[in-house]
Amino acid sequence: MTRVADICAPDVVGPDAAAAVAAVAATLAADRQHVWHPFAQMQEYLALPPLAIASGSGGWLTDLEGREYLDGNASIWTNVHGHNDPDLNAALQRQLAHVAHTTMLGLTHAPGAALAAELADLAPPGLGRVFFSDNGAGAVEVALKMSFQFWQLTGRPEKIGVLGMAGGYHGDTFGAMAAGDSGWFHERFRPWCFSAQHFSAPLCREWGGHVRAADASASLAALRALLVAQADRTACLILEPSVQGAAGMRLQPPGFVREVAALCRAHNVHLILDEVFVAFGRLGPMLVCADEDVTPDFLCLAKGLTGGYLPLAATLASEEIFAAFLGPYASGRAFFHGHTFTGNPLAAAVALENIRKLRPLIADGTLHTRAAYFGRLLDETFASHPHIRELRQRGFAAALDLAPSRDSDVNFPVDRRTGLQVCLRARAHGLLLRPLGDSLLLVPPLCLDEHELGELVRRTARAIDDVLPT
Q1: How far apart are CA 251 and CA 438, in angstroms?
Q2: What average pLDDT does this structure show over 296-309?
Q3: Which distant-in-sequence residues (6+ apart) come within 8 Å of 92 by Cβ?
Q4: Which domains, and CATH codes, for the chain?
Q5: Could you give the CA distance from residue 242 to residue 290 in angstroms, rounded to a whole number?
């Protein structure tokens, strides 16, 4: 009989076939009896073929039965240098020899302090203060609360409003949900969220490194009108710069973020840039705001920060913001917010190594070359595919919108679950993808070489053609 503890044994895929089979069965039984999976209709999940991951190497994952899969979504958009990277592993092991965790509530430690300095160096000038948390939604909550409190402390308590862009997704905690505009993901929780207003998103179609269509005029006009009418009551505007990931890789034209930043400055409204998804090479540069020469009031980072290894997030703020919170303890100006694992030393150590490895790949053009190749492959394979209505790609982020016909506005019935069926079929071709409705999101680890990027695209095409024959 296999004990539950045996599920996590490192050699479940090994020469002892009977033990391996028993370990797989124990894992799947424990999962089905006890795990409530995120973003899942569990009735559907429990009816589908199970898949349990045992190990990873580079851009590949291996299940408990020894089958290999190309990781086509970078383990939910986090993985940078690949799984089981020797340099990131070594950074963790070095830190483990010292301490795994110590609080930053009134204390500090070398990895946390060094990472804060590193992030301040990467960011545009002026973002010199770093507040650590555990995940992207947490980083957004910190920025929102800091903005609200800043206006209270500086004599403008009436500035409590929040602006966002249509389609924005900033996480699933209540402040992040309120600031976002994610449709049915969050709609049932609206009665418990504060009010926020949203302006329309710009039009931008781009893939293969070429802008095919772009128009931000209506979006900027809508934002300008909101600011003219409400800036005196508005605390902040939050934006995912360049690409709205969870909206289906919706793109913004070059220069759009600079225009938004200029409007916020002109109307004395804080700008929060949510780079949780887009930073650390995902779109090419280390930080989108630095590449766009935009200095926000707050910058939110997570996901690729630790290369996909450990949960860690950071909110960067300006010295002006920080100074407003200073005063005697009795003044009540302190920022009363924190997380138990804030600035965890293991996570900070691996983040430092992740950034160290990433810098030369950006500087020497390696990532740019890979991303351009990825775009060309997508264009050649899908630009005229009869079941791909639209293709969007920037850097290592792409979306393929599935449809009965590329030239029709008719969609597949929701209960057909076409996107999910394609992703399930992709497993048979050794590929892991995750759909967003009937959009396939291709978000590979940044370490994939040209051959592996080719396999990602080819296996995706096979899975689509299996489910939707032409």
Answers
A1: 18
A2: 98
A3: 309, 346, 349, 350
A4: 4-84+365-467 (3.90.1150.10), 90-361 (3.40.640.10)
A5: 12
Asked whether 317 and 127 are in contact (CB, 8 A), the reply is yes
Return the CA Rg of the chain. 23
- The three-class DSSP label of residue 165 is strand
Q: Are 396 and 444 in contact (CB under 8 A)?
A: yes
379's tokens: 């264009």
Q: Which two tokens stand for residue 313?
A: 């997030």
| CA 109 – CA 128 distance, rounded (Å) | 18
Tell me which residue of 269, 285, 202, 205 sits closest to 235, measured CA to CA: 269
Token pair recorded at residue 136:
């992207």
What's the rounded Cα separation, in Å, for the pair 313 and 302?
4
Token pair 């005063």: residue: 327
Residue 152 reports pLDDT greater than 70: yes
CA distance 224 to 204: 19
Q: Is it the case that residue 376 has pLDDT exceeding 70?
A: yes
pLDDT of residue 185: 85
Locus of tokens 């950074």:
91
Q: What is the mean pLDDT of the chain?
A: 94
Per DSSP bridges, beta strands 60-63 and 234-239 are unpaired
C-alpha to C-alpha distance for 438 and 435, rounded to whole angstroms = 6
pLDDT (tens digit, 9 = 90+) per residue, 273-299? 999 999 999 999 999 999 999 999 999
